[in-house]
């Protein structure tokens, strides 16, 4: 039976249950000879890497052996979910190996955005998370913006070493790896998959022309990101595809915004001011008075307010309240991991309550834009 079989390509145990986890084989492909997982099948037949995911503990275990190698670590983060996709503790695990920070999805921000300012912001945030970066590259893997800078940075910093590519799920790691396979790897040689020493995890090895490899590690799942806890069918509504059109709301205190049925934002106290929402434009926003918000949510979650459906919401963690105080004169974002952020435009300060599913990372940060 399948349970007893391992993939002939990478050695991982085969399973038909979860397409996101290592060893997945679609039901109809179980009879394939030799038995091979979907990922190895794709790599062999289409030269295409796809994501495999692991949780943070497994990943850090996997990563701890990188510290003993001499390599370049490429950490891909999603600009749109920066704090949510940054691997905390990365520095500790990669040892003395240098980290190149590749910030993906720059295409989502307004074109008028100043890239130097953006880079400074990224540098500041990375530093405050304890991450020392050798260099920072901004790009969009999907829209092919800045990819030449990624290649340049690899050429400049690799110095004959292997490259480990690390990142959380949905940051665009596969999209970027697939570009690297086409434009940077040694196509003369066959793409190989191999088991990662000392663990049950496998990693794709992409050959370079100097007998070194780009090693694509599994994507880390952080349950602190909204993208990880919504039903699969809802994910596309959360991930913006086109540049975000910011939504500006002039609010009086004691007013509420619902973002779909996922989040509730209360402007509790402060002068009338504007708030700018940077969220996927596929999401519904509904404004009401705070005093009506409880009843409205009770009656209209999953329907008038937008998705996910009531049944799906019942499967998600219940809301928890984050009380946030925006100091006078500061330009701040209320960041909601995997959803986006709300920029607070007033200078007079504000008292805010943000309700989000328990466990989702919510924080107040210096404005990105
Ligand atoms: P992985 O899980 O890190 O391997 O991420 P994928 O490469 O599968 O991408 C996750 C999602 O982000 C997909 O919906 C991609 O289309 C999208 N994506 C990847 N790169 C970009 C990018 O540069 N810009 C935008 N807007 N979306 C991207």
TrEMBL record:
GO MF terms on file? GTP binding
Q: Where is the CP-type G domain?
A: 56-223
Protein name listed in UniProt: CP-type G domain-containing protein
Q: To which species is this protein native?
A: Paenibacillus algorifonticola
């Amino acid at each position: 039976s399948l349970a007893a079989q391992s993939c002939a390509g990478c050695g991982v145990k085969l399973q038909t249950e979860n397409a996101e986890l290592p060893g997945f084989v679609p039901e109809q492909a179980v009879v394939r000879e030799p038995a091979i997982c979907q990922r190895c099948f794709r790599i062999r037949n289409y030269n295409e890497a796809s994501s495999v995911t692991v949780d943070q503990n497994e990943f850090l275990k996997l990563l701890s052996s990188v510290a003993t190698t001499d390599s370049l670590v490429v950490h891909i983060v999603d600009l749109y979910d920066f704090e949510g996709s940054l691997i905390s503790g990365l520095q500790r695990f990669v040892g003395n190996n240098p980290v190149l920070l590749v910030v993906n999805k720059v295409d989502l921000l307004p074109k008028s955005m100043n890239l130097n300012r953006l880079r400074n912001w990224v540098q500041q945030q990375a530093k405050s998370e304890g991450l020392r970066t050798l260099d920072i590259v901004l790009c969009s893997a999907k829209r092919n913006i800045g990819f030449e800078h990624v290649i340049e940075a690899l050429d400049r910093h690799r110095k004959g070493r292997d490259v480990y590519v690390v990142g959380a799920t949905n940051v665009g790691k596969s999209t970027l790896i697939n570009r690297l396979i086409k434009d940077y790897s040694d196509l003369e040689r066959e793409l190989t998959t191999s088991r990662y020493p000392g663990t049950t995890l496998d990693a794709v090895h992409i050959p370079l022309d100097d007998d070194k490899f780009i090693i694509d590690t599994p994507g880390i799942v952080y349950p602190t990101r909204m993208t990880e806890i919504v039903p699969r069918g809802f994910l596309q509504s959360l991930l913006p595809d086109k540049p975000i059109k910011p939504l500006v709301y002039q609010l009086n205190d004691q007013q509420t915004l619902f973002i779909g049925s996922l989040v509730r934002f209360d402007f509790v106290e402060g002068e009338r001011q504007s708030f700018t929402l940077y969220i996927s434009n596929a999401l519904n926003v509904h404004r009401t008075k705070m005093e009506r918000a409880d009843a409205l949510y009770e009656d209209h979650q999953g329907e008038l307010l937008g998705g996910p459906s009531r049944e799906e919401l019942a499967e998600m963690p219940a809301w928890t309240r984050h009380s946030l105080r925006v100091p006078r004169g500061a330009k701040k974002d209320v960041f909601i991991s995997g959803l986006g952020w709300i920029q607070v435009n007033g200078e007079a300060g504000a008292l805010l309550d943000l309700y989000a599913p328990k466990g989702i990372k919510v924080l107040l940060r210096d404005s990105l834009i």
